[in-house]
Design goal:
alpha/beta, 7 strands, 4 helices, about 40% strand, single chain
Length: about 150
Protein backbone atom coordinates (compact mmCIF):
# COMPACT_ATOMS: atom_id res chain seq x y z
CA UNK A 1 0.00 0.00 0.00
CA UNK A 2 1.30 3.43 -0.89
CA UNK A 3 -0.53 6.49 0.33
CA UNK A 4 0.21 9.99 1.49
CA UNK A 5 -0.29 12.49 4.27
CA UNK A 6 -0.93 16.12 3.43
CA UNK A 7 -0.70 18.32 6.53
CA UNK A 8 -2.11 21.84 6.15
CA UNK A 9 -2.48 22.35 9.91
CA UNK A 10 -0.25 23.88 12.56
CA UNK A 11 3.19 22.36 12.98
CA UNK A 12 3.30 23.17 16.72
CA UNK A 13 4.84 20.27 18.60
CA UNK A 14 2.57 18.23 20.89
CA UNK A 15 2.84 14.56 21.96
CA UNK A 16 -0.63 13.63 20.68
CA UNK A 17 -0.06 15.48 17.41
CA UNK A 18 3.22 13.60 16.94
CA UNK A 19 1.45 10.29 17.56
CA UNK A 20 -1.37 11.21 15.15
CA UNK A 21 1.09 12.10 12.40
CA UNK A 22 3.07 8.90 13.00
CA UNK A 23 -0.16 6.90 12.87
CA UNK A 24 -1.23 8.41 9.55
CA UNK A 25 2.27 7.98 8.09
CA UNK A 26 2.39 4.29 9.07
CA UNK A 27 -1.05 3.65 7.57
CA UNK A 28 -0.13 5.50 4.37
CA UNK A 29 2.99 3.30 4.06
CA UNK A 30 1.03 0.13 4.78
CA UNK A 31 3.29 -0.51 7.79
CA UNK A 32 1.07 -2.52 10.11
CA UNK A 33 3.82 -3.38 12.64
CA UNK A 34 4.91 0.27 12.86
CA UNK A 35 1.28 1.35 13.34
CA UNK A 36 0.61 -1.20 16.07
CA UNK A 37 3.80 -0.16 17.89
CA UNK A 38 2.27 3.30 18.40
CA UNK A 39 -0.51 1.90 20.64
CA UNK A 40 -0.52 1.06 24.35
CA UNK A 41 -1.42 -2.56 25.09
CA UNK A 42 -5.02 -1.73 26.11
CA UNK A 43 -5.65 1.07 23.58
CA UNK A 44 -9.03 1.61 21.96
CA UNK A 45 -9.69 2.32 18.28
CA UNK A 46 -13.15 3.49 17.20
CA UNK A 47 -13.16 4.13 13.46
CA UNK A 48 -15.83 5.31 13.05
CA UNK A 49 -17.26 5.96 16.51
CA UNK A 50 -20.48 4.03 17.10
CA UNK A 51 -22.13 1.16 15.28
CA UNK A 52 -21.30 0.75 11.59
CA UNK A 53 -20.67 -2.08 9.15
CA UNK A 54 -17.01 -1.81 10.23
CA UNK A 55 -17.94 -2.30 13.91
CA UNK A 56 -21.54 -3.55 14.30
CA UNK A 57 -21.39 -3.44 18.13
CA UNK A 58 -20.09 0.14 18.14
CA UNK A 59 -17.75 -0.73 21.01
CA UNK A 60 -14.56 -0.29 19.03
CA UNK A 61 -11.45 -2.43 19.00
CA UNK A 62 -9.59 -2.71 22.32
CA UNK A 63 -6.06 -4.03 22.68
CA UNK A 64 -3.36 -4.56 20.10
CA UNK A 65 -4.73 -7.94 18.95
CA UNK A 66 -8.15 -6.41 18.19
CA UNK A 67 -6.56 -3.34 16.63
CA UNK A 68 -4.42 -5.63 14.46
CA UNK A 69 -7.56 -7.51 13.40
CA UNK A 70 -9.15 -4.14 12.49
CA UNK A 71 -6.13 -3.45 10.27
CA UNK A 72 -6.51 -6.84 8.59
CA UNK A 73 -10.24 -6.49 7.98
CA UNK A 74 -10.46 -2.79 7.06
CA UNK A 75 -7.15 -1.05 6.34
CA UNK A 76 -5.44 -3.91 4.48
CA UNK A 77 -8.30 -4.02 1.95
CA UNK A 78 -7.43 -0.58 0.58
CA UNK A 79 -5.09 -0.11 -2.35
CA UNK A 80 -4.00 3.17 -0.74
CA UNK A 81 -5.10 5.69 1.87
CA UNK A 82 -4.51 9.42 1.54
CA UNK A 83 -4.87 11.72 4.54
CA UNK A 84 -5.49 15.46 4.22
CA UNK A 85 -5.46 17.26 7.57
CA UNK A 86 -7.01 20.72 7.36
CA UNK A 87 -6.58 21.75 11.00
CA UNK A 88 -5.33 20.40 14.31
CA UNK A 89 -6.23 21.35 17.87
CA UNK A 90 -4.11 20.03 20.75
CA UNK A 91 -5.16 20.21 24.41
CA UNK A 92 -4.10 18.18 27.41
CA UNK A 93 -3.09 14.71 26.24
CA UNK A 94 -5.21 14.83 23.07
CA UNK A 95 -5.38 16.25 19.61
CA UNK A 96 -8.41 16.71 17.36
CA UNK A 97 -7.67 16.87 13.65
CA UNK A 98 -10.16 17.83 10.98
CA UNK A 99 -9.76 16.53 7.49
CA UNK A 100 -10.44 13.91 4.86
CA UNK A 101 -9.32 10.36 4.32
CA UNK A 102 -9.54 9.23 0.71
CA UNK A 103 -9.56 5.48 0.27
CA UNK A 104 -8.52 4.00 -3.05
CA UNK A 105 -9.93 0.51 -3.48
CA UNK A 106 -8.22 -2.25 -5.50
CA UNK A 107 -10.79 -1.93 -8.33
CA UNK A 108 -9.97 1.78 -8.79
CA UNK A 109 -12.97 3.13 -6.89
CA UNK A 110 -12.48 5.89 -4.32
CA UNK A 111 -14.33 6.94 -1.19
CA UNK A 112 -13.92 10.05 0.99
CA UNK A 113 -14.48 10.20 4.73
CA UNK A 114 -14.57 13.75 6.05
CA UNK A 115 -14.41 14.00 9.79
CA UNK A 116 -12.83 14.82 13.10
CA UNK A 117 -10.09 12.46 14.23
CA UNK A 118 -9.12 12.37 17.91
CA UNK A 119 -5.93 10.87 19.29
CA UNK A 120 -5.09 10.53 22.99
CA UNK A 121 -1.69 9.54 24.36
CA UNK A 122 -0.40 8.34 27.72
CA UNK A 123 2.57 9.85 29.59
CA UNK A 124 5.01 7.91 27.41
CA UNK A 125 3.49 9.14 24.13
CA UNK A 126 1.75 5.87 23.23
CA UNK A 127 -1.75 6.08 21.82
CA UNK A 128 -4.42 5.05 24.31
CA UNK A 129 -7.28 5.94 22.00
CA UNK A 130 -7.98 6.87 18.42
CA UNK A 131 -11.57 7.93 17.78
CA UNK A 132 -12.69 8.87 14.28
CA UNK A 133 -15.94 10.81 13.92
CA UNK A 134 -17.16 10.32 10.37
CA UNK A 135 -20.45 9.13 8.90
CA UNK A 136 -20.37 5.77 7.11
CA UNK A 137 -23.40 6.49 4.89
CA UNK A 138 -22.06 9.91 3.98
CA UNK A 139 -18.70 8.39 3.00
CA UNK A 140 -20.43 5.66 0.97
CA UNK A 141 -22.29 8.38 -0.93
CA UNK A 142 -18.90 9.57 -2.28
CA UNK A 143 -18.02 6.13 -3.64
CA UNK A 144 -16.89 6.46 -7.24
CA UNK A 145 -16.11 3.74 -9.73
CA UNK A 146 -13.08 3.43 -11.91
CA UNK A 147 -13.66 5.58 -15.02
Amino acid sequence: MTGSVRWDATEADHPARRAARASMAAVARGAKADWLALFAADALVQDPVGPSPLDPSGQGHRGTAAIGAFWDSVIAGAASLHFHVHDSFAAGSEVANTGRIRTHLPDGATMDADGVFLYRVDDTGLLISMRAFWEFDRAMATLTTNP
